[in-house]
Design brief:
Length: about 240
């Protein structure tokens, strides 16, 4: 009886020594391995990212708090560092892990764009544009500069503005295209409100760039507006 008691007590002590979240972590990892990313929710995918940065704590409540604060997995990893640091329980190491994921997504999307002519891989261009700035908190005006084969020469953020406005100067756009010997450009900017519908100012600015660029042999293939709720193409809308 004494031996049985010792074994039972030892098992109970070991059970108490192993944190309850360890089993949850292994089950979640196994589900991800076996069934893929579609088998886990946004907050569970965040848990998987946070496991390495926070090894000694149950991160499920933190992951759920992040989704509640920002809305989705994509919005969490794209959020600015200062805003992430405002979330209780999220330290520098955890923020680093989230930003590494965001940087990796951007590198992957940009790699797909660089591989072949942009006009033959338009879905990759849209994916890249959304990854790069759909969730930015301020407007950014980006230009994709293309050569005569429509391959990417350079990808530059020319201006960063406020939550609802970015100053854009058509002559500066064209000047930079000439410096790079670009024969075409794709204009991109984001709407932090989430709604990608082009404003009257967006349309006027785009048409002004087209007018300055055309006599110099520079084509404006499109102006893409991205936001959390999708994207809009001024060419697709027949506004240019």
């Amino acid at each position: 009886m004494a031996v049985r008691y010792d074994k039972t007590a030892r098992a109970a002590a070991l059970s108490e020594a192993v944190p309850h979240y360890r089993g949850h972590r292994e089950r979640l990892r196994a589900r991800f391995r076996e069934a893929g990313s579609d088998a886990v929710s946004d907050y569970e995918l965040l848990e998987l990212v946070l496991f390495r940065a926070i090894p000694q704590r149950d991160v499920k409540p933190l992951a759920k708090d992040l989704i509640a604060a920002f809305g989705s997995f994509a919005e969490v990893v794209a959020a600015p560092r200062p805003r992430l640091k405002e979330v209780k329980g999220l330290g520098d190491a955890a923020v680093d892990e989230l930003k590494i994921v965001h940087a990796a997504a951007g590198r992957l999307a940009r790699g797909q764009v660089r591989k072949r002519p942009l006009l033959s891989s338009w879905s990759s261009v849209l994916d890249y544009c959304r990854t790069a700035q759909a969730f930015a908190e301020k407007e950014q005006f980006r230009i994709l500069f293309l050569d005569k084969r429509n391959q990417l020469i350079a990808d530059e953020v020319q201006q960063t503005g406020t939550v609802d406005h970015t100053p854009v100067y058509p002559r500066e756009v064209v000047k930079r295209a000439l410096e790079l010997s670009a024969t075409a450009v794709v204009l991109v900017h984001n709407h932090p409100s989430g709604d990608p519908t082009p404003s009257h100012a967006d349309i006027q600015m785009t048409q002004a760039i087209v007018e300055v660029a055309k006599p110099l042999g520079i084509a404006v293939h499109d102006h893409i507006i991205v936001g959390k709720d999708g994207h809009a193409s001024l060419k697709g809308l027949r506004l240019i």
